[in-house]
Amino acid sequence: MPTTIDISHVSKAFVKAGQPLRVLDDVSISVEEGEFVALIGPSGCGKSTILNMVAGLIAPDVGHLRYEGLTIDAVNTAVGYMTQSDSLLPWRTVEGNISAALDIQRIETHEKQRRVREAIETVDLVGFEKHRPHELSGGMRKRVLLARTLIYNPATLLMDEPFGALDALLRIVMQEELLRIWNNDRRTVVYVTHDLSEAITLADRVIVFSKRPGRVVLDQRIDLPRPRVIDSLRTSAEFLDIYDQLWSTIRLEVASPTDT
Amino acid sequence: MRPAVSLNIARTSIIATIIFIWELATRIGYLDPLYVSTPVKVGKRLWEWISSGEIVSHLLTTLHELGLGLLIGILVGVFMALLVGSNATLTEVFRPIITVAYSFPQLALAPLYILWFGVYLLPKVILISIVVFFLMFFNTFEGIKTVERELIDAMRVLGARRRDLFRMVVLPATAVYVVTGLRHAVPFALRAAVFAEFISSVRGLGFLAMVSGRAYDSAGVYAALICLLAVGVVLNAGVGALERAILPWHRQEIGSRFKGIGNV
User: Fold this and answer.
1) Does the predicted model carry a pTM greater than 0.90?
2) Segment A115-160, tens digit of pLDDT
3) Is the peptide bond before A213 cis (omega within 30 degrees of 0)?
4) Strand pairing partners for A220?
5) Do B95 and B145 have their domain in common?
6) Is the same domain home to B118 and B200?
7) So what's the ipTM on this one?
8) Could you tell me if residue A106 is left (phi over 0), alpha (psi between -120 and 50 degrees) or otherwise beta?
9) Which domain holds residue B233?
10) How many secondary structure helices (H) and strands (E) does chain B include?
11) Closest chain B C-alpha to A79 CA, distance in angstroms
């Protein structure tokens, strides 16, 4: 498998209240094409910073990032980025938000309408085309974000706790939806979460980060068969084994004294 | 009964009660009609002005001043804010200058404008457009500076260039602030018009109120004030309609948005 994302020896510090704050310390990760990788770790460990770097929105202080072999030195429009915060445009309808990327690409109206309709069907929002974000529930807004990200068919998806703000039941529904959609095309996904069950359920690989400054402390393959059915998966013996094993590592990491 | 209906009944009855007490107090001699007039006299005076057509030239004069002043102030204010706000260097250069100029009480310049530009239309238009300019500039500028970084970044990853960002994010996000600016600018424009007419003028609703006062004609003063009130109400309703037309997505509570207006 060719390497899609190559992060090598990356460190990053931000200045906070006049003090440098080290968020990443010599992180190296390589993600292969078609791989679903989950990044997990305590909050503030720099997981989101990694996604921002892969998206080309910020640059590392030290180290190197490559996407499909090319150095990332500008905004990376080959990826679809679903951020943690709700970045829907409040003045646009569901349709208008989903078509944003196509508007930017100046896709002609007919083609645009067809693809928007398709995307709306994919994320199950038929009947809400003319609604505006403030008229939607949290789950529906996430669906709009997902559709907006999928519509231009990016080869790679970056997802930053996309369903973190949802309640537990809705989160499972959205995870199922994501797995269903992902199963059709198996694109590369980097998925940030702080929910271990979510990471194991979704990913081929779970990468565990230390407390700030974030370092990779564990890189674990998850060899659960696909397609995965969340209900039965979470009670299976294999799942629980993996969970226990990863949890013992994470607990050590979260409980260990920190230098910041 | 629907809440809106009962609210309107409550409002109407409060106003009716005040008018009734006013009339009653002058009838029984508690208030002197020479100073406070009476609702009946004010009503009569308004009717006289309207039926004789006398009010028309005053109304048109004030509307003319307001229309031109608002138009120029809004266009220049919004344009300058977009220009200065979307360029870091221009922001650095102009922001302090305009802030200092804004701290100055603009109305105090009215006598100068009259000295320079006479007693007719021009000094009023200039005064109004300057007052409006600052309110529109600051609100629009604020709008540009508070565009959410996340929205910009999200659009950049979708491939947006500068021009797309302006059209898709900056402009609509700023529109809210432009409307807020208008909500402030309209009543301030009206104040500026009246103030300028008080200082020196030959026509206009402010002029009418002033000359009536000088003639100890309190009914005339109140009648002119009611006309000004009507102009203000109509202009505000216009801003409200504009807001609903261009910001259908924006549910606003008017009261909570009247913040730091500054001195004019």
Assistant:
1) no
2) 999 999 988 899 999 999 988 888 899 899 999 998 988 999 999 9
3) yes
4) A206
5) yes
6) yes
7) 0.86
8) left
9) 37-262
10) 12, 0
11) 7
